[in-house]
Every structure is written in C-alpha cells, then in structure tokens.
Amino acid sequence: MGDLLQNPRLPHFREAPVSELPYAHGGPPLTALLRATPEDFVVDEDLGITPSGEGEHVFLHVRKRGANSDWLAERIADFAGVSARDVSFAGMKDRHAVTTQTYSIHLPGKAAPDWTQFPEPGVEILSHARHHRKLRRGALNGNAFRITLREAAGDRDRADACLQAIARDGVPNYFGEQRFGREGQNIQRALAFFAGRRTPRKQHGMLISAARSQIFNSVLARRVEAASWNRILLGECCSLAGSRSWFVADSEAQAALDARAANGDIHPSGPLWGSGALPSQGEAAALEEAVARENQKLVEGLARQRLDQDRRALRLRPEGLQWEWIDTSTLVLRFALPAGSYATAVLRELADWHDAA
C-alpha cells in the first residue's frame, strides 16, 4: 500500500485532522488528559431492543474493559463453536474504554454454551436471552457516555459557558478521526481504490465511508465558518431529529422551519455522497457543489459505487448533558448521543486534549 500512497499519478490528498476544523463556540477553553485509564471513558449502548426470549439467535449483553469489538466477536465465536460470521453487533466501541454492548450469536437448533465459563479477562457477561433476529450494524438508538477529563487547565468560567452553549445549541456533527485512519491515510487509500488499484474487499466499505465522511466534514466546516451549521438555508434538506428521514425545505414555510430548528425538531443536513443529483437546492446546494468540485476525485469515485445520495444532520445535540468538577483539575461529563455520532465532536469544543491511550 505504501507505493499507492506515493504514486505520483494519484492526486495527493491530506485529510485535515478534526482538531483543525473550525469550532462553533470560540475554540476550546481547556487543555486536558483523556483516557488516563479505561474507566475514564465509559460507554453504555442503548440498543432499543428487548430480546423476545425465543428464536435462533442469542443476544449476549457484555461489559468489556480494554477490548476491541471485533476481537471480542471472534472470541465469542470460538467459545460458542460457530463461525465468526455468525456473531454480529450493532456498533463499534472504543477499545481504550469500559463499554457495555450486545452481541448476537446465530445458534439455530443448538444449545447455548455455559456463558459463566467464558474465559476472557476483562469481559463480564451481564445477561443472555434468545431473539428471533440477528443484530445488524447501526441498529441501535445510541450510546450514553461518562467521560472524565484529567489534568484539566484553562479558563473554568469559559469552560462552564461553553458547556452551557453546547447543552443549548449543540455542536457540529463532525465525523471523528477514527473514520480516516492513522494520519488520515484512508482518504489516500480511497483515491487509490477509486483509481482501480487492487484493494482487499473487506476494506471497501471502510474506504467508501472515509470518502463520504471527508466530503461531509468539508461541507460542515464551510457551514461552521459561515455560522449556518445550525440554521435552515434556502433549499435545505432538513433532517428529522431521532430519525434517518429528511425532506427538502419549502421556502414558503421558512418561519415555521426556523422555529422547528430552534426547538431541535429538525436539523440542517449535509451530503453523504452517492450517485445522481444532490437533493438539496438553492443556497444549500450551491455550497455543497462548491465543496464537491474541490473533492472531484472522491465524488467521481463514490458515484461509481452506485450509492444513493443520503444525508446526515449537521448539528449534534447531546442529550442530558451534565458536568461536575470533582476537583480543581478533574471534570466529569455525562451525556447521550444518537447512533453514528461521536463523543469527540462534543469534547473538541471544550478541550484540546491529549489522548493517553
């Protein structure tokens, strides 16, 4: 892959780190240490599904510390005596954290193993029950977070004001650094893939997602700079809160749409690029088309993947945001986010952090 990244016939592209993208609330007032221990980053999955008690699949609810989601899926498959493809989960969870999540194991006509004998240290089986359907990626409501920032230094009054603004107005819904790989190299790999270079099939989805995320983040950065990331523009595709549905704004209903946006019922949206015409119109479409021209190779490559144009909310509003200073340099945050969003999008507005993990 190294030769692909240095091939002079491919356009060079460096994805800007999320830390360099524009801020909505004046820039982080604090510096801090993140994930000094796994217990400083606690994530509890909200699956939104109650197992029925019967069916071909076993739902296994686990708490894990310092374990990768894919790695644990392989260990569960080995223990249950099934193929890795028979084990699934709804969403990836951070390795350097304490997280709870649910796995499904396809065991048609088979007895489940004795889960009390599951041997992996750092993994606790909380419950298990049968269900009639497998878990699919993305099929969850969201996640609840408890995050501890240590060695926090800076302007505490500004930090409290920033947190109040985040609770009231939300934050830009940027895709996080993990979408782009080490030093952002997934974008260059995506360009190589789109140019026809042989790429392992299992990496295709990751590279397509990275390309879509780059275009979305670029559109959102423009909207943040223009102070329109939380406003409904003419021709806007409005994203319904708590849903993947969206609709094109009617200019005759602008006042009503502005009120709905202020209440958090709808959000402005940005493109998840695919084939065909943009669904946005007017002012919103003009901005998105300008970003597309700057990312032409990514746009052309995505169009060839036969993906439908889709949308993602530009604004992220953390639910139930609470914060507490445990001492003069330790800040604990609690909030919940919908599926597909990143806790780091919230944290970056508050603190320029060093990740100890």
Cα(first) to Cα(last) distance is 26 Å
As a whole number of angstroms, the C-alpha radius of gyration is 22 Å
Reading off the top of the CATH hierarchy, the class of the largest domain is best stated as: Alpha Beta
Report the total helices: 9
| Relevant CATH superfamily of the largest domain | TruD, insertion domain
Q: What structural class do helix, strand and pairing data support? A: alpha+beta
- Provide the domain count: 2
- The CATH architecture name of the largest domain reads 2-Layer Sandwich
Low-confidence stretches: 1-15
Beta-strand content estimate: 25-35%
The chain-level mean pLDDT equals 91
Might you state the CATH topology name of the largest domain? Pseudouridine synthase
- Helix content, binned percent: 25-40%
Question: What is the subunit arrangement here?
Answer: single chain
**Which descriptor suits the 3D outline?**
globular
What is the string of helix and strand elements? HEEEHEEEEHEHHEEHEHHEEEEHE
Number of strands: 16
User: How is the main sheet built?
Assistant: 10 strands, mixed
Write a compact overview of the structure shown:
Helix content is 28%, strand content 28%.
Can you tell me about this structure?
The chain has 357 residues and is of the alpha+beta class. It folds into 2 domains: 2-28 and 168-316, 2-Layer Sandwich (Pseudouridine synthase); 49-131, TruD, catalytic domain (Pseudouridine synthase, 2-Layer Sandwich), CATH 3.30.2350. It is 28% helix and 28% strand. Strands 1, 2, 3, 4, 5, 6, 7, 14, 15 and 16 form a 10-stranded mixed beta sheet that branches. A hairpin with a 5-residue loop joins strand 9 and strand 10. Helix 4 (185-194) crosses helix 5 and helix 5 crosses helix 7. It starts with a helix and ends with a strand.
